[in-house]
Design brief:
- The chain is of the alpha+beta class and about 220 residues long.
- The protein has eight helices and nine strands.
- The chain has a five-stranded antiparallel beta sheet with strand order 6-5-7-8-9. A four-stranded antiparallel beta sheet has the order 2-1-3-4.
Length: about 220
């Protein structure tokens, strides 16, 4: 029985560590240790029920061990605040007054398209619709709204992390020559661009690596 308790503890710690490494996009609405507990308890409950050669008592002991570990983690979180960051992680600011914080996105195994998707789900359809955007420790997205937001149409992503989206260029009615001319005016190459979006009115959100974002204009001929 002691061996099962020890094996369960090792599995718990391993899963918790792996889930922290996997980043917020894998966690959903639960804290990492809560997600680990859900996975482990579900597995431990199924094994003794499916395999009659395993005494049911073993499964009960393992589940009790998980409950004890949950209580220990909860107490550590309650008594030692620094442990909360170690166990659950901390909020990550992915948008600030300068624009998208690419470093924080990478740290959480996210990219700009994931950020834009989260913003749309929260009701924001342009990157400058918020002053600050962050992913909470449980993976949910929170934002401080820009009171001057002027979103009037859906934006298309033309460049993301240095990669040009030719499909969206075509939708916007912009050819490569026009895009290259625009980039030349901004003294940038595609690989130097964190993100560039455009809406149906030609309003461009442009952010070059290491620089604050700009709101510019560009002629568009597409319909979306």
């Amino acid at each position: 029985m002691a061996l099962i308790f020890i094996r369960t503890t090792v599995i718990f710690i391993t899963l918790l560590f792996i889930m922290r490494l996997m980043g917020k996009s894998q966690i959903g609405e639960m804290q990492p240790f809560e997600f680990v507990i859900t996975l482990v308890i579900a597995e431990l409950a199924c094994i003794p029920m499916a395999d009659t050669s395993i005494p049911l008592l073993y499964g009960v002991i393992a589940i009790v061990a998980i409950f004890v570990l949950h209580q220990i983690v909860w107490l550590l979180d309650l008594w030692f605040k620094p442990m909360k960051t170690v166990i659950c992680g901390s909020p990550s600011i992915v948008i600030n007054r300068d624009g998208v914080v690419e470093r924080e996105l990478r740290k959480n195994n996210l990219d700009v398209s994931d950020l834009i998707e989260s913003m749309r789900a929260a009701g924001y359809f342009a990157l400058d619709d918020v002053y600050y955007g962050l992913y909470e420790a449980n993976g949910s997205f929170s934002a401080l709204e820009n009171p001057d937001k002027s979103t009037s149409s859906l934006s298309l992503t033309l460049i993301e992390s240095g990669t040009v989206d030719d499909k969206n260029l075509k939708k916007a009615g912009i050819d490569r020559e026009e895009l290259n001319g625009f980039l030349t005016e901004q003294k940038a190459k595609p690989k130097q661009v964190v993100v560039m979006t455009v809406n149906s009115e030609g309003r461009v959100y442009f952010q070059k690596k290491g620089e604050k974002y700009k709101i510019l204009k560009l002629g568009v001929n597409g319909q979306w």
